[in-house]
Amino acid sequence: MIYLNGKFMPIEEAYIPVLDRGFIFGDGVYEVIPVYSRKPFRLTNHLNRLQHSLDGIRLRNPLSNEEWQNLLEQVIAKNEGEDQYLYLHITRGVAKRDHAFPANVPPTVFIMSNPLLPPPAELLVSGAAAITSSDNRWIRCDVKAISLLPNVLLRQLAVDVHALETILIRDGFLTEGAASNIFVVKDNVLLAPPKSHLMLPGITYDVVLELAAANRIPHEIREISEAEIRTADEILLTSSTKEIMPITSLDNKPVGNGKPGAMFTQLHALYQQYKATDMRGHPSGTASR
Ligand code: PDD
User: Which atom of ligand 1 is nearest to the CA of 141?
Assistant: First the structure.
């Protein structure tokens, strides 16, 4: 069951007019929220990022955080599975095709839920392959825009060579993955690129950095050069749907010794522990409580 503009319905019955600005211009924003044991993970953080994206495209938030929470809980209840991921999508509505914003047009609001499957166990044991490419996206990557054509093309470069992700480099420095954030480990220090308009501020990225701080794992938030990526001891990938994964090959060369490393093993365990605590209903907030 999905939610579309005030109604719940089976996805097969959900249609939008062809003049929806999401369809015509990619004029909208979205969120992906993991749900564990039927409880949205880090909901406030996701709703805050949604507000940042809406502000970034000058679209008024149609709902309050309480209304979003209520709606999302209904979608979760109407779908099967303890673990799900919510996809939430808002466009500037339906109007005659014109680049300028339409006046007084209600936004289109769509929410669906899909089963959330953990990353395949064998990929956690052997690690995944990634390739690099230059980051040719726009320079508001902090906005979670539905216009994802560059990300789609960049991800497909990885799929074409049976790799999991494309790691993006802009002006000689790491930004993120086509649909993930990327960390590098060198000499037992976890390195994270600083948040800026050139990357999506990942919710999982925040959790990982909070876990590192709370557990005294040496970490630095700073620009990471292409050379540092290529000589990394470990590379880690994070996203709401993939959690935390080890990248053990980059452009067909092994990363470090070519196996998931100690930093991955420690952070993955901490992440699973943190998720379990969160699911037991402790207030979701910071990982350092
Ligand atoms: N993508 N960077 C980009 C470009 C992303 O698309 C994503 C997530 C992330 C990770 O953010 P988070 O940890 O908040 O999921 C970083 C989602 C999962 C998607 O588009 O399906």
Answer: 4
Spans of all domains in the chain: 2-115, 121-279
Residue of 30, 31, 32, 209 to mutate, ligand 1, most atoms within 8 A of C-beta: 32
In short, whether 175's Cβ falls inside 6 Å of ligand 1 is no
DSSP bridge partners of 35:
40, 84
Whether residue 109 contacts residue 60, with contact meaning beta carbons closer than 8 Å, is answered with: no
Please say if the pLDDT value at position 285 is more than 60. Answer: no
Is position 275 annotated as part of the catalytic site?
no
pLDDT in tens, 86-115: 999 999 999 999 999 999 999 999 999 999
Residue 283: pLDDT band by 50, 70, 90 thresholds?
Answer: very low
Dist. CA 93 → ligand 1 center (Å): 24
Beta carbons of 184 and 211 less than 8 angstroms apart: no
CA distance 239 to 271: 12
The rounded distance, in Å, linking the Cα atoms of 182 and 228 is 13
Q: Which fold has domain 2-115?
A: D-amino Acid Aminotransferase; Chain A, domain 1 (3.30.470)
- DSSP string computed for 96-121: SS-SSPPSS-PPEEEEEEEE-PPPPH
Residue of 7, 78, 96, 144 marked catalytic: 144
pLDDT for res 280: 67
* Coil/strand/helix, residue 31: strand
- Domain at 121-279, CATH class: alpha beta
The string of pLDDT tens digits covering residues 246-276 is 999 999 999 999 999 999 999 999 999 999 9
